Amino acid sequence: EPDGTLTAIRQLGNVELAVLLGEFTRDTISGIDVLIVGDVNQTKLQKFITALEQEESRELRYAVFSHDEFQYRLQIKDRFTSNVQLAKKEVLIDKFYILTEPEPTISEEQ
After folding, report:
1. Of 103, 70, 72, 92, whose CA–CA distance to 8 is shortest?
2. Does residue 1 surpass a pLDDT of 80?
3. How do residues 38-66 score in pLDDT, each as one tens digit?
4. What span, in angstroms and rounded, lies between the C-alpha atoms of 15 and 94?
5. What one-character DSSP code corresponds to residue 57?
6. CA dist 57 to 49, 51, 52, 93, 96, Å?
7. What is the DSSP letter of 32?
8. Strand runs labelled E in 4-97
9. d(C-alpha 33, C-alpha 61), whole Å
């Protein structure tokens, strides 16, 4: 269930971007199922992926990047990040609006 997944992802550390794609969206373009960007605890991450694999009854492909590494890959428009941008995906967390647009705020100006 997405709520449980989101809670589990938040507990991994400082997660800036969390995306489900591939198996979760029936889209093969990205080549991965889970993308996480941020500073995460590797042990917690491993447990999270294992639990998710048990839930889905299949092996999942995942990628984890630091903020700087992911930003660099976006800047050079490497194939992986370009495919992630094109892929059908479910964005769970996107603190810096890397893959989503900010919600328009209603201005108070008169």
Report:
1. 92
2. no
3. 999 999 999 999 999 999 999 999 999 99
4. 9
5. T
6. 12, 10, 8, 24, 32
7. -
8. 13-20, 34-40, 62-65, 90-94
9. 5
